[in-house]
Amino acid sequence: MHAPARRPRAALWAVLLAAVTSPGALLAQERPPVVTPPSDIRTQAQAAAAGAGYDVSNAQIADAIRQSGMSEEQLREQLQLAGYDPGLIDAFMAAQSGGEGDAPAGEDFVGALQALGLLGTGVDEVVAPEGMEAPARIGGGEAGVFGKDIFRRASTAFDPVTSGPVDPGYRLGVGDQLQLILTGDVELAYSLVVNREGTVVIPQVGQVSLAGLTLAGARTLLTQRAGASYSGLTTGGTVLDLTIAGIRTNAVFVIGEVEDPGAYQVNALGTVFHALARAGGPTVRGSFRAVEIRRGGAVINTMDLYDYLLYGDASDDIRLEQGDVVFVPLNFRAVAVRGAVRRPGIFELAPGEGFADLIDFAGGFASEASQDRVQ
Length: 375
Hints:
This protein starts with 13 loop residues before the first strand and ends in a 14-residue tail after the last helix. It has eleven helices and 13 strands. The chain is an alpha+beta fold. It is 24% helix and 20% strand.
């Protein structure tokens, strides 16, 4: 059993099995030393599957490929892009055409499909060592990746509501439709659209540049500019109000390790999370911890989706502007937590995080957990 010449970083998963044994005290050290696996192990996932006697049949592979919707040529292309030999599929196709559908699949081909996320790793079938209670089942493939479910169900449910009032911090841009209302000594109403030059034209006032200003800033500027034509604005006899009648849409790009990369039309109230939801969220290889927002060729912000999903902290979920790029890199370290924890699943650890952080992401130990032994 030899490793492919090259594997994506996301395939290098560590597997942590939390099992329940006899009652005991807390672990003496929060962060146990990292054990480096032998170099001859194909992948951590395959090693776990082999230890559990998880044999993948050609019928299971055929079903996985069929569900992926990829043709034979597309699969070959994906194998090559991921650094695998496209010829790994040849033996499988020959077995299928030769009526050997029940013949065991090639180990290297199985490992490649697992690394691509097309085939479950079999980790959900791991049998606990003798004398230990079997850990809780968390499902194979992408089912256990924390955060994936919310994007799978998202569709348009997370799109921002555009029918309500717009906050004063909303930044105006080309295409916004405005309503200018004067009341008091003068009763007037104007419908304005921010044109491609970022300006609006107001009768008796002239051309005013508004693009890039917040709604509150635009109100202040228009009050000053219109004061020369409507004296009531300076004496208090007339009041000016500016509201948003129609919100523009921005073209943003969601690329990297997302399910459906491409360009998306997102309304100007939309944030990074909205754009990710439209693109189906990160893939099983994508990072939930370091989503980059690029504007004008520079990274202006980095968003940790765990802050949003675990703690409801949306402070880094900024609004997107025309031409912004949302980039999802490959994940750092994907670690599976099983057994007597409150939220079993597969979590991503950022640089500098360790065992204590992992247990925190998993919701802590369950009430029936015995914490004197963690494997």
